[in-house]
Amino acid sequence: MSKRALITGITGQDGAYLAASLLGRGYEIFGMVRRSSHAGVADHRLRWLGIADKVTLLDGNLLDLSSQIRIIQDVKPAEVYNLAAQSFVSASWQQPYLTGEITALGAANMLEAVRIVAPEARFYQASSSEMFGLVQEPVQSETTPFYPRSPYAVAKLYAHWMTVNYRESFGLHASSGILFNHESPLRGVEFVTRKVTDAAARIKLGLQKELRLGNIDAKRDWGHARDYVEAMWLMLQQDTPDDYVVATGRTTTVRDMVEIAFAHVGLRIEDHLVIDPAFLRPAEVDLLLGNPNKARETFGWEASISLEDMIVEMVDADLKRVASQAA
Ligand code: NDP
Ligand code: GDP
Tens of pLDDT along 264-318? Predict the structure, then answer.
């Protein structure tokens, strides 16, 4: 019988790539999705990857423990990946309470559901490099102290420590992946890489003139989501649950990332980039740079896709998408 995995956040970037990867490994995939009046478009990423009809979607919500208990009782998963969250840092200042409910308490709900109904299941929590925030070390690893800088990061820190706590308190096989930024053509367009690649495509096709950004001096350690979901799976294959940084070990400014995207379509940054204070944040994370040695040494994971190749893939995907919308 094939192994069953339950993925929360299956309609998001990582959920879609993880589902595709696990299907390739012979898993049976169940995804928890929140009800919406736009149900017809909620699975657009799964359709983009050609797997919408290969996964089973079940109605549930991270805010509703009863729905999680019911789903876990019905599915009896061997592995649970908790990827659902209010995941956009900037929005977390506008909706700090909701971010706390979904991103922090939602993870606690999921841990409770697993503890009550399926304590043998292996559990993955989607933790974030944003927890390092005002970085306490120039290169961040599993031992670097946390200093969250946004309501999102504070919520993720709670969920991270709850995962550690449930492992230590109840012996759950619960692991936390401290993932640095990872992107793809399926990244939400509000995040800076997709905003830039979408703008590069629109400007190239004559549909937009400007790209308005906030802090272009911020540095991020950007990898590809396709690589990063492999690390999630590898964590759950280990005999012992643990916490791992997943990163490339290279950091780049937002400005240099824009340069890569624009150069690919023959645009000059100075002709189109406008700095707009509206996109500055109340508190910024200036630098993220991860040390992925523990993941490499423990289970041989390494990032395989360069920032350049990823940005080119994203710009090309946006050129196609924008051209087909404009037709
Ligand atoms: P996305 O924003 O693309 O996806 C978030 C998912 O969560 C969506 O499927 C969304 O559903 C779902 N969701 C939100 N609220 C609820 C709720 N109340 N109940 C059920 N589902 C809900 O995020 P990513 O795929 O990029 O990231 C996956 C996880 O990894 C997130 O937890 C994120 O915070 C974390 N992370 C991401 C990083 C990155 O660089 N991408 C870095 C580090 C951590 P809907 O489609 O209905 O909106
Ligand atoms: P984050 O690292 O999870 O916050 O991912 P984002 O892609 O949202 O932001 C990455 C960095 O880009 C942050 O330092 C932002 O301040 C910076 N940035 C600069 N301009 C923008 C913008 O217009 N939108 C977004 N989302 N980020 C921007």
Answer: 999 999 999 999 999 999 999 999 999 999 999 999 999 999 999 999 999 999 9
Q: What tens digit of pLDDT does each residue of 137-192 get? A: 999 999 999 999 999 999 999 999 999 999 999 999 999 999 999 999 999 999 99
Instruction: Determine whether 97 is exposed, middle or buried from the number of CB atoms within 10 Å of its CB (0-12, 13-18, 19+).
Output: exposed
Are 14 and 8 in contact, with CB atoms under 8 Å apart?
no
CATH topology of domain 4-182+224-246: Rossmann fold (3.40.50)
* CA-150 nearest atom, ligand 2: 4
The answer to whether residue 39 scores a pLDDT higher than 90 is no
pTM over the 0.85 mark: yes
Distance 85 CA to ligand 1 centre (A): 4
Distances (CA, A) of 271 to 197, 268, 275, 314, 319: 16, 6, 12, 21, 19
Measured CA distances, 123 to 80, 171, 226, 246 (Å): 5, 11, 20, 17
Which CATH architecture is the domain 188-220+251-285+306-326 placed in?
Alpha-Beta Complex (3.90)
Domain 4-182+224-246 and domain 188-220+251-285+306-326 have a common topology: no
**Domain boundaries, given as residue ranges, for the chain:** 4-182+224-246, 188-220+251-285+306-326
Give the phi and the psi of residue 62 in degrees, each rounded to 5: -60, -20
Q: Candidates 88, 180, 187, 192: which one to mutate for ligand 2, based on the most atoms within 8 Å of Cβ?
A: 192
Determine which residue's CA is closest to atom 28 belonging to ligand 1: 83
Q: Residue 81: CA atoms inside 13 Å, Cβ hemisphere, count?
A: 30
Span from the CA of 267 to the centroid of ligand 1 (angstroms)? 32
Q: Which ligand is nearest to the CA of 218?
A: 2
Strands (DSSP E) contained in 77-138 are 79-82, 122-128
